[in-house]
Structure formats: structure tokens, C-alpha cells
Amino acid sequence: MSDEAKPLLGGLTVKKVFLGLILAFLIIEIVMLPFPWTVASLRTENPKLTAVMKERIRQARAKRQPYKIHQTYVPLSGISDAMVHAVVVGEDGTFYENHGVDWYEVEQSLEEDWKEKKIVRGSSTITMQLAKNLWYSTSRDPFTKLNEVIAAYMLEHYLSKDRIMELYLNDIEFGRGIFGVEAASRIYFGEPASQLSRDQAARLAAIIPSPIRHSPNSSSQFVSFRTSVILIRMEARGW
């Protein structure tokens, strides 16, 4: 008798257990994905509390600390072009060409993570980051990444690139309780997002990978290096 046909507890076989696990996984995936009408509603509606906001609130409550969200939604036309350019070169250079997932980056990330035996390189596009912010968490586990990929395709199907960018720039985290470029611009630089200079935009984009640990006004090596790289890339693109 083959191993897959050998009965286990209750008469189950290895094959049945394996298929059962696959089915359970698929059900979990479907449950964790946003409904199509939820995604479609983002064409005209702005999200209220995102998953990352809720996660930060839970963390603060666990430590018995106060937590206030600073966020002001503005249209894409109310954000300087420099900020849009900075996040594109800093986070997703093929944003306007890809369909929500950059498979080259995914492949390179998997190879590097496998080599180091841990997650050391991100591969999220702007659309995938938006999906994470809206519906998931700051977790970097493979299951969350799979959900991000599927949800990113849904966002790309229902929304325009400009709307995805608008949502991203209004919901991305820029510090403790600071969400969206309008709030960040006013808190860090004392002016609206529409007036951000190239250097200010590059500094804000520089801290996106680690907004809790770094400030755009910091002179740390991390912020200085990423800011200079972003400015060089913007210059190379004629921005």
C-alpha cells in the first residue's frame, strides 16, 4: 500500500489530509481578501481607519499610551509633483508601467531572502503597499505577501493609477500617528503638501521604509543616504 493511501486517524489518508490543508489555506486566503465592491468603492470614497492605523492603535493601548491620528485627505492635484516623483523613484520605479506587481523584484527578493534565510529585501510595489496599509498589517510573512499580490491586482483592476497614487500618498505612514503627505508636510515642514520642494519630498520619501524610527528632518546616515539616492534618481529621469 502506498504512503498516500495508508489510513491515518479516523480513516484519513495522507492525500486527503494534504488536500484538506490546501482547501483550508484557500478558504483563509479568500476570507482575508477584500470584497470586490469594497475595492470598487474606493473610486469615490476615502478609507477611514486603515489596517495599519488599527494596528498602531492596538499597540498603543497595549502599552497604555495615548495615540492620536493626524491625517488630512487632499486630492492628487493638491500634492506637489515632486512628492509623486520622489515616491515613484524611491518605492516603485515602474509604477506607471506595472500591473501592481513587479515580478522581477519579487524574484530578486526571494533569491536574496532564501540566501540569507530571512526576509532582508522588500519587493512591494506602491499598489501592494497600499493593499497592506488598507487591509493587512506591517507583517512581512509570506502569507501576507500573497494577499498583497492578489489585492494589488484587484486595486489595479478597479482603480486608475492616479487614484491608487492619491490613496497611497494620503494613507502612507510618516511617523507616530502621522498618516498621509498633507499631515506630514505640515508637521515636519510647516506648509501644505502642494508646496513641497524636491528636497523635502525626497526626505519624506526616504523614511517610508521605516517611518517610526526616522524623521525627514533627521541628519542620520539612513535619511541622508536615501534622500541623496532619491534626488539622483529624480534628476536622472529629468524630474
Characterization of the model:
With 239 residues, the chain is an all-alpha fold. It has 2 domains: 1-32; 43-236, Penicillin binding protein transpeptidase fold, CATH 1.10.3810. It is built from 11 helices and 2 strands. The chain has helices at 14-32, 36-40, 51-62, 81-91, 103-116, 126-135, 142-158, 161-171, 181-189, 198-206, 221-236, and strands at 173-175, 178-179. A two-stranded antiparallel sheet has the order 1-2. Strand 1 and strand 2 (178-179) form a beta hairpin. It is globular and about 60 Å long. The relative contact order is 0.15.
CATH architecture of the largest domain: Orthogonal Bundle
CATH uppermost class of the largest domain: Mainly Alpha
Q: In percent terms, what proportion of residues is strand?
A: under 5%
Helix run count: 11
Q: How big is the Rg?
A: 21 Å
End-to-end separation: 68 Å
As laid out across the biggest beta sheet, the strand order is: 1-2
Apparent shape: globular
Spell out the CATH superfamily of the largest domain. Answer: Biosynthetic peptidoglycan transglycosylase-like
Overall pLDDT: 85
Q: Helix proportion of residues, in percent? A: 55-70%
**What name is given to the CATH topology of the largest domain?**
Penicillin binding protein transpeptidase fold
The SSE string, one letter per element, is HHHHHHHHEEHHH
How many strands? 2
Low-confidence stretches: 117-121
State the major sheet: 2 strands, antiparallel
